[in-house]
Every structure is written in C-alpha cells, then in structure tokens.
Please model this.
Amino acid sequence: MKRIVFLLIIVCSMFSSCDKQKAAIDDLVDFSEELTENSSEYSKEEWEKAIAEYQKIVDKIDQYEYSDEELKKIGKYKTRCLKYLTKSTIKQVSDHVHKVTKQLEGALEEFGVYDSDVDSD
Model:
C-alpha cells in the first residue's frame, strides 16, 4: 500500500511540474500579447513594471527543461517581448537626449557661443 501511495505522489508531482512548466510558457505568450496590444500607451512606470514582469517570467522559465519545439516557441516570444522593451528604451533615451540637447543649446546661448537663429541642418 505504501508503494502505491508513493507512486501516486511521484506521478502527481510530475504532472504538477509539467503544468508549471507549461504555465511559464503561457505566461510568456500572454505577456508578449499584452505588449503587442497595449504597450504603445504605456507610461514610464508601466514600462518599469513590464521589465520587472518580463524578468520574473524568464526566471520562471529558466527553472525547467524544454523540448526543442518548446525552446523555439520560447525564443520567438522572448524576442517579441525584447523587441518592445528595446523600442521603449530607445524612445526614453531619445527623449532624454533631446532634453539634454535643448539644455545645452540654452547654456551655449547664455555664453554667447550658440546662435539659435542659425539653421542647424
């Protein structure tokens, strides 16, 4: 009787592990769909949360072994997520560079080094 109970526990834990493994992939797919559908409206704070969520999902995925087919799927959806996360980072950097550039123009004007009327092609 103890053997049967022991075998049942092992079988149940195997199914539980498989469910968690599949759930990790499903979380990645769901997250990539969320980014695809809604990321154009994200605030800076939402992007910070998205980056943390992505890392949490990747950490969960890294706990398991996957078949070649599953690894292809993971690679596809990781790349999709990283594409959106990278675009956001580039936009934030671009916005910051623009602000710094304008501040430098103001500083140079104050020193009389920069003429804002000059066309800067």
